[in-house]
Amino acid sequence: MLGWLLRHPKPDFPTAQKSGITSQTGGGVSVQGLTTTASILVALALPAGAQTILPVEFVKVEATPLTYDAALTGTINAKDSVEIGFRLGGRIMSVDVRVGDEVKKGQALARTDPLQQVQALRVAQAAEAAATATWEQARQAQIRAEAMLSRGVGTRAALDSANQSLSAAAGALTQAKSTLGQAQRALADTVLRAPHNAIVTTRNAEVGQIVGAAQTVLGLASQSGREAVFRTPDTPLLRHAIGAPVTLAGIDVPDLQMTAYVSEISPIVDPGTGSVTVRATIKDAPTNSNLLGAAVHGAIHYPAGTGVAVPWTALTSTGDSPAVWLVDANGRVAMTPIGIERFSNGTVILNSGVSPGQIVVGAGSQLLYPGRQVQDAATIPKGSP
């Protein structure tokens, strides 16, 4: 080999190969430098005539439609849910439902002690009866005063007094009826009823417990309408996912397969987890209660514009920057720095460094050095040495 080097002082490859090794603190070397140096040493060990054209994979750079893919994990919730309680506080006498029960609109769910409301209702009924009797007496007196005045045996003052008494009695009757209505509603409010057809999801009170006004006693979920709720890291691409389809698969129930559509993306990032909430409305979801709270996998796919994608096998590096090997018109390669936008399954999405129509090296790029001549492995007939 020494004799060959003396006879060939200037080998036929670029001098850039001599700078392939990059010194680092502590005497280390970069992997890219070792690969390039190893390729150079192999080339030096061969006579110039024995250096063959290296077959590699040619990849033509094209602007292709990009798809954003994300794997999500979440749970299935009711699209509409409500927490209900008594309008007035009191001691709970009974809770007639359990978690998971299906209830109908107007069905009694729980009751409080109605003793005070019953007594208030009786007082209001008595007051309303008395006000009715007073009004009736005032009305009869007004009729008599008006008749006597018309026959000339009464006075205008007597009629005015009768009219005033009738007006006062009518006002008292109206107030008594209002009080009676309030008492009746208060008694009705001792029974907690379902506002619509629903499924009981939570039970927060038991018999004998004293609850305040509007304190949550039961949680209800609508029987119709289901949505998948996910928490995922925030990304600018996610902001364009409204309406995108989501394929759902059950975790505990593998046979559960559904399709949903993204309906809401929270604009606020959770400071504790750094994630955002994504809601997807499930199409034709089953209405049974077993589905609520079920854990699901979600796969979301939607167009993300166009870009340049190359296979991950084309990726290499120059110093601290990513790069690819470009093939010129003469079949020789040169390293070109690139900008990476993001990684996808099997491909790398680029935002700078290459243009549509150029050729980059895919498989086999680890064997290259600047100026190395290559050819497309796909053009070599099968069975050729």
Automatic annotation (TrEMBL):
Please report which protein family the annotation says this sequence is part of: Belongs to the membrane fusion protein (MFP) (TC 8.A.1) family.
Q: Report the domain of life of the source organism.
A: Bacteria
InterPro entries recorded = MdtA-like_BSH, RND_pump_MFP
Record organism = Paracoccus mangrovi
**Every Multidrug resistance protein MdtA-like barrel-sandwich hybrid domain range:** 81-216
Name of the featured protein: Efflux RND transporter periplasmic adaptor subunit
